[in-house]
Amino acid sequence: MTAPVQAAPAEGYAGDLTPQQAWDLLAADPDAVLVDVRTDGEWRAVGVPDVAELGKDAVLTPWVTSDGRPNPAFLAEIQAAGVTTGRPVVFLCRSGQRSIGAARLATSAGIGPSYNVLEGFEGAPGFGGVRDQAGWKVRGLPCTTWAERSA
Which residue, 95, 88, 89, is CA-closest to 74? Predict the structure, then answer.
């Protein structure tokens, strides 16, 4: 059994984790899974988190469809990928906003404990409009390109 996660309190899900805390949970708990809820276009253009060194593969399931509407198959898709009750789930989006909705929905369906990654994969834009201030990538956590992941 792994040590309890020190997540920031949140309403409707297990809590918020920094990118490093998310990585640490994924590394410490063999059952923990990372779910990236960004769109296909974001994965292709920006890259994806890489948890291969932990013996895992991130689940890629968009929270919204390409036209910006909620993905009606979201729960079914993550469940089909093995995301279930009693298994810690770490939800990640671009800046830590869409993943809150995903964590809440998963929790309401009995999946998890479900966590949101603060800052997301790229973080919020800085003063120059560039997403280079925070997030999974900026924090130096493993990531890869879409092409490398798909190879």
Answer: 89
